[in-house]
Target: Iron-uptake factor PiuC
Amino acid sequence: MLLCIADVLSADDLAALDGLLESGDFQPGTKTAGWNARLVKKNEQMAGDALRKAQKIVIDALNRNATFSAAAVPKQILPPLVARYSNDMTYGNHVDDSLMRGPDGRAVRTDVSTTVFISAPEDYEGGELTMETTAGTQRYKLPRGAAIVYPSTTLHRVEPVTAGERRVAVTWTQSLVRDPAHREMLFDLERARRTIFDKDGKTPVFDLLSKTWSNLMREWAEP
Model:
């Protein structure tokens, strides 16, 4: 499932991130790339204390977003990378590493990738997040504060930025539900029961959907 979510970052979040990006230290993005991805990765990533502050802002925003939580079913969200692209910087075709190290040094399986857009699309030219899917090539350049959530198994790239500056935060989630098809079914059920609840309250149909959602989660979740 590939999902675009509007307004993940609030105006206050964005203002704080703008300040951190203006004052933060940056290093070549190749320092965090895998052995083959570093051949096609050309960007800059925030480091130091500013990065830690930015990471908290992004993770807090994701944790309070009900749509993200329903879609990703997070077990653990890794600290985001905060990156900028300018002057023909790009990130060629790659698949995200299947295992990454969490803050405690333990391996975390990457099920869901998330890119949160800090720049507005009119602030830069090029820089589309491009997915190679069974439905063909799909390009995304979302509004400021929006996020795109997609399976970490997806082959994707960032097109060269030819003018301006593209600013994003990128993170990975290990889901309680490993199978992406199962996550999508649970997401659809969650949307259906919330729609019914908002319209009619706690009805027998809502209870039946809630029972099904809960029992499927019990069947599929890996705590």
About this structure: The chain is about 35% helix and 35% strand. Helices lie at 11-23, 48-63, 66-72, 180-200, 204-220. The chain has two domains: 3-175, 180-220.
